[in-house]
Amino acid sequence: MARVVVLDYGSGNLRSAERALQRVGADVEVTSDHRAARDADGLVVPGVGAYAACMEGLNSVRGARIIGERLAGGRPVLGICVGMQILFDRGIEHGVLTEGCGEWPGTVERLEAPIVPHMGWNTVRTPEGSKLFAGLDKDTRFYFVHSYGVRRWELERAEHLRPPLVTWADHAGDEFVAAVENGPLWATQFHPEKSGDAGAHLLRNWLNTLS
Asked: Which H, E and C letters describe 83-129, residue by residue?
């Protein structure tokens, strides 16, 4: 049974993430303890609400350092919703710029769509070879609730490195990053823990990479 830590840094949605992971067979602990988060088989970084508030909470538990230490050792991390957004360089909300973890270049910004927030079920466009979405039909829907996202993928392709697999979604004609698979660092803009059987399947796919 894979040992998974859901990082507790004051963001909401911790218990629903915990229950969803338990449902697919993980041994889950919700904690901000540095050693537990560093040494677990997998680390989940959830997040809801404002980008700046999430970064403040993350910094209060040295979350960026925990994420960096795990990735340096090739140990899996899964970001969810704002927990994905804070992995990028920066977020801009209401004209305020907040520095993120900087694992990927890019800016989290307000969606340019006639109706915001983007709330409800939506399909995604997955790249060939995705392990995160393996076994799921292309018309599978996931649950989103957000007003901000990454609308441009800015990481340049390196000649000798396998490029990340980037999944996209569309809300009222505005495209944004819906998920990323980049070595041990995976993330989703949608909420797998709120996406029913499809979300459970996706979390199981992630757990299968931990053993």
From this structure: HHHCCEEEEEECCEEEECCCCEEEEEEECCCCCCCEEEEEECECCCC
